[in-house]
Amino acid sequence: MRNIDKIRTSLGLDNIYGLYFSHKGLSSLMPLQRQDRPGGRAADPKCDPLTASCQRDGMSLEPIASPEPEELALFRPVEIEQKKKELNRPLPVDCETQAYRLRISPVGHQVNLPVYLAGERPAATYLDITLEPGAEAAITLVTAKTEEPIFLNISLEENSRLDLNLIKMPGYISWQLLSYRVAVATGASLRQHAVNLDSSVYQAGQVFLRGEGAEARTQTAAFVNSFESQRFDMTIRHEVPHTVSDMFNHGVIMAEGFGCFAGRGVIIKGAYGSKADQDSRFLALDPAAKAEAYPVLIIDEYDVEAGHAGSVGQMDAESLFYLQSRGLTLDEAHSLITAGYLFPILHDMARCVPALKQTVAYLQQRVIEKVSL
Amino acid sequence: MSRPVLEIKNLSCSVDHKEILHGINLTVRGGEIHVIMGPNGTGKSTLASTLMGHPSYKVNGGQALLNGEDLLAMPVDERARKGLFLAMQYPAEIQGVTNADFMRTAMNAKLPADHQIGVFPFRKALNQAVSELEMDASLPDRYLNEGFSGGEKKRNEILQMKLLKPAVAILDEIDSGLDIDALRIVGQNVTRMAQDRGEEMGLLLITHYQRLLDYIVPDYVHVIMNGRVVRTGDKELAEKLERDGYEWLRQEAGLEAEPSGSETAADLLSGLPL
Ligand SMILES: Nc1ncnc2c1ncn2[C@@H]1O[C@H](COP(=O)(O)OP(=O)(O)OP(=O)(O)O)[C@@H](O)[C@H]1O
Ligand SMILES: [Mg+2]
Known about the structure:
heterodimer, A: 9-stranded mixed sheet, 19 strands, B: alpha/beta, Rossmann fold, 6-stranded mixed sheet, 4-stranded antiparallel sheet, 10 strands, about 25% strand, globular, binds adenosine-5'-triphosphate
């Protein structure tokens, strides 16, 4: 079975709309409903990207010129040069870029748009996504074998709502740079759920709350296996009054793994009445696990509410005792608590995007398999 | 199921290098309801935790036998599978694990691999217990104890007891934090369970207040002070304590007042260059 079909089947993403990238690059934007694909085959690669059905659903997609290097530089985390040295190998961050523009207009129903990035794409992918005023969409980005970077430039116009789900397909080991910038206008909101259970990753998010009432809520679940390195940088800037942000990150680290949550909440002068919260925690399953969780708040305004918590800890002895006192073995108690560390994020993802229920069930299953080893 | 028996013989134990229990003797048989009362900090929860096998408590001497088997030699989970149950004074909160998933895992832990309880029979038993305890129907699907009110946590302990059907159940201050109605509901549920199971289950309740005993009528009331059982009686002893407090017992037993905090005045003074 081809990669893409395997992923689709595992994640149960069959009956929803798809923006489908093959190893050759972007091929189509069309419904991936089962009845449209007899024999379960992928969407026709010859299909014109702008199909009637796409337009009917208020979406349009077109190739655009690659952004200028200065523009792309905004997506490159500062620490990436250092990362290259650490890993002691060239990273495919300087490759050529293929760019596309996707516009989503308000339609009567929520669009769930899985974007698969699998196989070896020849170049970095740059997606310019705009949600028009009042539009609501869920975009699920599933990455598998790819190492080429992914850049998302997202504009959420007035009162639009985006659920952005970033899923690394379990079982595929490849270092991945994924960087996104989101501008959130008045009354608009971003919810991001990221799940990375296998392989090293560098994920960077920059969110700009630019209109009153703008909101951003991000949650990340990371399972860092032995000898992997996962780093999540997230900056949320409150640029106007009455904006709200909330980051919630939980990670589990095995021996010799490295995990980092670097969350920055910035509230600039004049952004009064804003609220910024973050909570980043790692559960270290071994003394040889390395983790950093540094929440940073930079606040230049008095009338705000802000809170941050960060910790790297071992398993709680009282919790273990409680579960064992009900007859669970030490191993079972360990597994349950470890899985429970990540499940709140998975459960929340399914609650926010019900179409992902089966995907979440699959991811949960993977977590359980990992913790019962 | 035969009639269980928990025998505690001259048990002493310490926490943090300080001896808390100095030789406890107590026998609980199936069909009996025992109550332990006593001032704060005298070692009631320490006894419960030691029997369950909490790692912070070190046994210095004596024995605890469940149906003749050495309880103290077993790991915590084995004690549970042999039929010991402890409703804790402060139950832990566990994120990400739903109450229902946890409960089913716990039930299955006691059952042989080829007799595991299926999803539907489990849900039926769970729903019935939830409604008997007049708990909110959403509680099974919430994370284990997370964000539960004090009273909800206590009811959740009883819910687990109902489903796990222990041979000997220790309930540590199950009445604290319960409102008047909840106290009645919990009391009636415990009593009904004791009646239904008869000699298959023994109960050891730790409480400060006589009012719980209006719903659960004890056969024996023991008073623990300074790490020892200083008096055993029946329901009337509990009523007298409620009226008169502990001072008379303290005098009778020739005990000093309980040291407040973990160090005695002598401990504190011994460190000073006097
Ligand atoms: N884990 C622990 N670490 C340190 N000291 C402890 C610990 N557990 C109990 N103690 C100490 O042992 C003594 C007995 O405590 P215990 O909890 O058994 O009292 P109790 O009789 O249950 O009191 P209460 O009625 O307040 O619940 C107290 O002085 C307490 O501070
Ligand atoms: Mg106590």
